Amino acid sequence: MKRLILGCGYLGWRVARLWRAQGDDVYAVTRSQNNATLMKQEGIVPVIADITDPETVKALPQADTILFSVGMDRKKYDSIHDVYVNGLKSVLGGITETPSQFIYISSTGVYGDFDGAWIDEDSPAVPAREGGKACLAAEEILRNGRMADQSCILRFAGIYGPQRIPAKALIQSQQWRKITSGGFMNLIHVDDGANIIQKVAEQAIVGETFNVSDGNPPKRKEYYQFIAEQLGLSGIPWEATATANEITRSGGNKRVSNQKLVGQIGNLYHYKNFRMGIEQALAFEP
User: Fold this and answer.
1) Averaged pLDDT of the chain
2) Is residue 193 exposed (0-12), middle (13-18) or buried (19+ Cβ within 10 Å)?
3) Chain centroid to CA 255: how far?
4) Staple 213 to which of 123, 139, 157, 273, CB 3.0 to 4.6 Å?
5) pLDDT at 89 over 70
6) Cβ distance 10 to 69 under 8 Å?
7) 227 and 278 in contact (C-beta within 8 Å)?
């Protein structure tokens, strides 16, 4: 199979390795010549392009599967809408041959706030933050465009893993005012996320939207206290943290169900809860 990845970063790079391991031809778009060299070393064919520049994506390689897993590089871009929405439009305009499957990595941030209630894919999408709004707008472009029949939308919870542990730096530096004990955290280990993408591609699933989370959201207080313990801190002075009703980075208080995904592709989770995943992630850090 031929696979094309746009956004070969923290998540996309792991997917590329999985596809290469099973013998697929993998192409990946990058802006960086240095990244292109690293890709070649792993048997990935680099494509030098910038999704925000339509001229550079006019002749993307033909592929059976296209994975759009673009993150927001705030060092280079100011507008998340330009990257997520206009970038997707540029990519779609540069595809000359329709793939069998177009996998779009969205975010559970499209749902907004549900006051701690459980939600699923049928819950209304009313995003509170710009990232969620941009993801939802991109989803609509796919659903209403020429890739509608080939698209599969994966709404990812917060991705974590080695070198990317949410709030670790804040707790380590004891920046208590930047955390809050209120609400739930929805998480997915990056390795589990990559395995799920591989399985969705393997089953050639199209025309579906799935929530991708571990299905076991902890309360923020529980999560932060666990991180503090792993870092050797005796405890967190909760009276010094932000108030529970302050808007958090996740854009809302909710618990994201993964039952639709599990029912469709099976339970692929190696890290069924954040404790298992954090312990693995910390083992890879100095």
Assistant:
1) 92
2) buried
3) 17
4) 157
5) yes
6) no
7) yes
DSSP class of residue 240? G
% the chain with pLDDT above 90: 80
pLDDT in tens, 101-151: 999 999 999 998 899 999 999 999 999 889 999 999 999 999 999 999 999
Q: What is the DSSP string of 83-123?
A: IIIIHHHHHHHH--S--SEEEEEEEGGGS---TT-EE-TTS
Element counts in the chain: helices (H) and strands (E): 10, 11
Report the residue count for the chain.
Answer: 286
For the domain made up of 2-163+188-217+253-271, the CATH class stated in words is: alpha beta
Q: CA 198, CA 11: separation in Å to the nearest integer? A: 11
Amino acid in position 139: E
CA distances from 127 to 108, 130, 152 (A): 9, 8, 20
Tokens representing residue 222 in the block = 């529980």
**Alpha helices, DSSP H, located in the chain:** 12-21, 33-41, 80-81, 87-94, 130-144, 168-172, 190-202, 220-230, 259-265, 274-283
User: Domain residues of the chain, as ranges?
Assistant: 2-163+188-217+253-271
Calpha distance 190→12 (Å, rounded): 10
Over pLDDT 70: what percentage of the chain? 94
Which pLDDT value is given to residue 251? Answer: 58
d(CA 105, CA 72): 12
Q: Which residues of 229-263 are buried (b: 16+ CB within 10 A; e: fewer)?
A: ebeeeeebeeeebeeeeeebebbbbbbbbbeebee
CA distances from 137 to 64, 86, 120, 134, 150 (A): 25, 10, 19, 5, 18
Q: Give the type of residue at 112.
A: G
Q: How far apart are CA 147 and CA 102, in angstroms?
A: 7
| Residues 105 and 11 sit within 8 Å (Cβ to Cβ) | yes
